[in-house]
Amino acid sequence: MIKKTLATAVMLSCFAFSSTVMAAGLEDDMKTLGKNYKAFNQATNPQAATAALNNMRSAAAHSKQYKLAPNTTDKVTSSPALFEQIIVEIDKAKVLVQAGKLDEAKKQAKKIAELRDQGHKHYMH
Is residue 105 over pLDDT 90? Predict the structure, then answer.
């Protein structure tokens, strides 16, 4: 009973938090992405993992509206395409979580961090 109540409270708070993500700027989106990536990796149950992935997806989707100029002359993926790749990886991890494969999802989600690091390398000034 307590677990169900706690899970419901977590889901409701995540829903409330995710609605505030839509009003955030790029910096806030990146903080949300990082914070929820950490929460996802620390998740011990599918509900918490799914909530973190949903928040990450919302932040990445919101970030696609920002067109960033690379700080390098190297050929790089456009910023909206990079955010789209992050969304694809989040969706892959979510499918694994829903299939009851949380540990496998955490391994899959390492690609999210790799894409984030790639973006930081090319777009941070």
Answer: yes
Q: How far is CA 61 from CA 5, 76, 109, in A?
A: 30, 19, 17
**pLDDT higher than 90, residue 17:** no
User: d(Cα 104, Cα 97) in Å, to the nearest integer?
Assistant: 8
How close are the terminal C-alpha atoms of the chain, in Å? 50
CATH code for position 6? 1.20.120.10
In this structure, what token pair is assigned to residue 76? Answer: 């790089």
Distant-in-sequence, close-in-space partners of 122: CB < 8 Å, separation ≥ 6: 70, 71, 72, 74, 76, 77
Q: What is the pLDDT of residues 40-98, one digit of tens each?
A: 999 999 999 999 999 999 999 998 888 766 666 666 667 788 899 999 999 999 999 99
Please count the structural domains in the chain. Answer: 1
Print the domain residue range for 63.
Answer: 2-123
